[in-house]
């Protein structure tokens, strides 16, 4: 039967298999993996230095803001996925329909905002990558492309 704001009545037993098969849970897991890939690529290979100069710079056209933006939205998206995943676990136990409504609206609003931020991040990283000179990137080109690609995928997963 129908429930309040997309969940069964409160107090039911937790079924892990049924829980993981829910579309919003699968989308949240995919979004968390994409966010993890983006910030891991940027933290791991997003900064490099020249052999003659030990100072690190961002591979995206030497623009520190590009790396910071990608890392920032990636980390925050990953943490938000964990938070909303926990909300999804406890959601059936919440009996107050007003609380359920606010949680669903918060999830919807955050997802909309983060979809927009991922779009901005994809455009920003792509633009900065297009201005990056090939001789400035010794290693890290694949990680930069992966960060751009998974930023694009994140637009749709959120």
TrEMBL record:
The UniProt record lists the keyword Transmembrane helix: yes
Residue stretches spanning the membrane: 25-48, 69-91, 103-125
Keyword Heme: no
Protein name per Swiss-Prot or TrEMBL: SNG2 protein
Gene that encodes it: Syngr2
Subcellular compartments: Membrane
Source organism phylogeny: Eukaryota, Metazoa, Chordata, Craniata, Vertebrata
InterPro entries: Marvel (IPR008253), Synaptogyrin (IPR016579)
Key words of the record: Membrane, Transmembrane, Transmembrane helix
Similarity field: Belongs to the synaptogyrin family.
Membrane-topology descriptor: Multi-pass membrane protein
Extent of the signal sequence: none
GO cellular component terms, semicolon-separated: neuromuscular junction; synaptic vesicle membrane
Domain MARVEL: residue ranges: 19-158
């Amino acid at each position: 039967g129908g429930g309040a704001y997309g969940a069964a009545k409160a107090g039911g037993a937790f079924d892990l298999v049924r829980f993981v098969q829910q579309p919003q849970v699968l989308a949240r897991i995919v979004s968390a993996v994409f966010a993890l890939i983006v910030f891991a690529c940027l933290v791991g290979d997003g900064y490099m230095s020249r052999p003659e100069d030990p100072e690190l710079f961002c591979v995206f056209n030497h623009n520190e803001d590009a790396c910071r933006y990608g890392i920032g939205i990636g980390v925050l998206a990953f943490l938000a996925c964990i938070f909303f995943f926990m909300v999804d676990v406890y959601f059936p136990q919440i009996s107050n329909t007003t609380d359920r409504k606010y949680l669903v609206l918060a999830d919807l609003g955050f997802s909309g905002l983060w979809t927009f931020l991922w779009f901005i991040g994809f455009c920003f990283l792509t633009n900065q990558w297009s201005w990056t000179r090939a001789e400035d990137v010794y290693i890290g080109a694949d990680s930069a492309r992966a960060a751009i690609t998974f930023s694009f995928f994140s637009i749709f997963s959120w």
